[in-house]
Amino acid sequence: AAPPSPILELAQRDPAAAAMRLRTITAREPHNLAAHRMLGRLLRKLGRDDEAARAEMAAIRGAAQDPEMIA
């Protein structure tokens, strides 16, 4: 089995810290759809629905432009 993801472990311990780390990742890697999706889930968990919606929309827009997702 693959080792657990450090972000997933952090999300379980400290969702707010994980969200901050994911914001850094998505800013640096705007095409990282998994990071946008995870950020959206964490922000919803924290009750930050408007921010969560923006992160989720970024993932959806990215997926719509990804040839592998379209095929």
Binned strand content: under 5%
> How many strands appear in the DSSP assignment?
0
Weakly predicted, low-confidence segments: none
**Helix segment count?**
5
* Distance linking N and C termini: 29 Å
Please tell me how large the radius of gyration is.
12 Å
SSE order, as H and E? HHHHH
Shape: globular
Structure overview:
The chain is globular, with a radius of gyration of 12 Å. The chain has helices spanning 6-13, 15-28, 33-45, 49-65, 67-70. The protein is mainly α and 71 residues long. Helix 2 (15-28) runs antiparallel to helix 3 (33-45) and helix 3 (33-45) runs antiparallel to helix 4. The protein has five helices and no strands. The protein starts with 5 loop residues before the first helix and ends with a helix.
Kindly summarize this structure in a few lines:
This protein is mainly alpha-helical. It has helices spanning 6-13, 15-28, 33-45, 49-65, 67-70.
Write the layout of secondary structure elements.
Blueprint: H1 6-13, H2 15-28, H3 33-45, H4 49-65, H5 67-70
Keywords:
mainly alpha, single chain, 71 residues
